[in-house]
Amino acid sequence: ENSDAVNHLRGVTILANNDKKYFFISKYVTVELAMKCDDQRKFLTDSYREAAATENPAFEGWIFEFDVNYQLDKAHRDESRFCSMMRPWTAGGDLIVEERSVDIYEVFNSSKDLSTLIKSLDIGKVLWAKPKLWCQKSYDFLCVWKSDATTLNMVVANATIASTHSILLTEVNKLATELG
Q1: 142: how many CB neighbours lie within 10 A of its CB?
Q2: Residue 117: how many other CB atoms lie within 10 Å
Q3: Closest residue by Cα to residue 82 from 101, 97, 64
Q4: Distance between CA atoms of 180 and 174, rounded to whole angstroms?
Q5: In the chain, where do the E strands start and end?
Q6: What is the pLDDT of residue 5?
Q7: Which one of 53, 78, 157, 179 has the minimum C-beta count within 10 Å?
Q8: How many CB atoms lie within 10 A of CB 164?
Q9: Taking a C-beta distance cutoff of 8 angstroms, is the pair 65, 49 a contact?
């Protein structure tokens, strides 16, 4: 039996003026190619430019999320701090700049794996974690730290360039319940 397969890494977007712009076919392909590049910073820079040319915000979002991942990994390796800008809970407020260390940076497969990481976390150390599932329902990254023996702090982060972004608090609550 002969089966045909089509394998491609990029797709075409036709703009309003009929220009054709090519970009990676999926977020998965984008991440896999980026991981194989010797110069990930250059890959990100070039990808930002190409994604913007497609006029598709989702493509720019993929690259931004990969950029945050790159920055967290670099901060962990360099033992430096990660600086982020967070939106306040109320509409129209100014962005809040927050800076945290990246003592541990891990990709986790399940809340059970995350729980194991958190239980071994020392007081004052900061864990940044990324779910392996790339289509996670509510967050792209988690930042967790223990301020004392009984207090666990968690920041749920979405890497987005959009001016607004929804978050499923039921999913965050479910995660908090699973973590105990």
Answers
A1: 22
A2: 15
A3: 101
A4: 10
A5: 10-14, 20-24, 81-86, 96-101, 104-108, 126-131, 141-148, 151-157
A6: 45
A7: 78
A8: 7
A9: no
101 exposure class (CB count in 10 Å sphere: 0-12, 13-18, 19+) = middle
Residue 36, both tokens: 């194989």
Written as six digits, the tokens of 47 are 């990808």
Residue that has been written with the tokens 């609550």 in this structure: 173
pTM: predicted TM-score of the whole model, two decimal places: 0.75
Both tokens of 65, joined, read 């999320």
Going residue by residue through the chain, which has 180 residues, state the pLDDT in tens, using 9 for 90 and above: 555 444 556 666 776 787 777 666 677 777 777 788 888 888 888 888 888 887 778 778 888 888 888 899 999 999 988 887 766 666 666 777 788 899 999 999 888 898 899 989 999 999 999 988 765 667 888 899 998 888 888 888 877 766 666 677 777 788 778 776
Residue 55 falls in which region: left (phi positive, over 0), alpha (psi -120 to 50) or beta:
left
pLDDT on residue 135 = 59
| Cα gap 139→156, rounded to integer Å | 6
Q: How far is CA 56 from CA 16, 93, 160, in A?
A: 12, 27, 13
CA atoms within 13 A on the CB side of 113: 10
CA distance 18 to 40: 31
